[in-house]
# Entry
Amino acid sequence: MTIHAIQTGSVRIKTAQVQGAGRGLRRRLGVFTDQHWTGWLPTYAWVIDHPEGVIVVDTGQGTHLLDSARSLHPYRRWEVAFRIEPDEEIGPHLRALGIAPRDVRRVVLTHLHIDHDGGLAHFPHSEILVSRGELRTAGGWMGRMRGYLPNRWPSWFDPVALDLATDAYGPFASSRHLTAAGDVVAVATPGHTADHLSVLVEDRGITYVLAGDTSYNERLMRAGHVDGVCADEDMARATLRAIRQLASHRPTVYLPTHDPESAARLSHHTLVDTSWRC
Ligand SMILES: [Zn+2]
# Structure
């Protein structure tokens, strides 16, 4: 089995989104009042080349996000900026790896934020899995009010609503196997969105956490700092705690979507530094 990191362009957000300040509404409004932008952060999607078939986790950005500056939605218009060329979308990256879109058996989305579902159009032949609650949150006019882009989903988009069973997997309360071998597992990692999930890949004694937006980088996960836009601070904090617990018990490589170090950690199999235990 091989995991590939695919960078689908990059994104800039406010520093108060990366690390939230204060609690509740104050934390969320802080993203709008903050004058400080991050540098350009990568937006990764992941390809698991698995003996049972290729699994893609998240689809990254699409070039349609370049219209965000003209959006009527205040977050998309003022609080985020994207960079992406057509050949940086996930489809061309897959072809460069020798993987045709038809070869992709399954696509799993950690959540439906616009920089995670932006490459869906490349997968008309794949089974697409999204947590049932996330589909509810993102759909329709309410979804658009929340900043999702359900109107940009391909017309054929008919995902399988994923219900995670109440089977604990390590420190995670609910999970579901995505391969018969049991080595690729979706686990509930709520907080950033209420129904956010992560995908764990067990390979040669290491657990790789394809973490979506559980945090924007590893340092924040280790410190237990939640972001400025998360739906539920307490859940987000509990999720970061569960990831630290996982890393305390098994060799773990942590791979959030926007961490500039994620691709290097994947290629060097760099384990989470668990020195918080001291
Ligand atoms: Zn997100």
User: Anything to note?
Assistant: DSSP finds nine helices and twelve strands in the chain. Residues 111, 113, 192, 213 surround zinc ion (CB under 6 Å). The two ends are 34 Å apart (CA to CA).
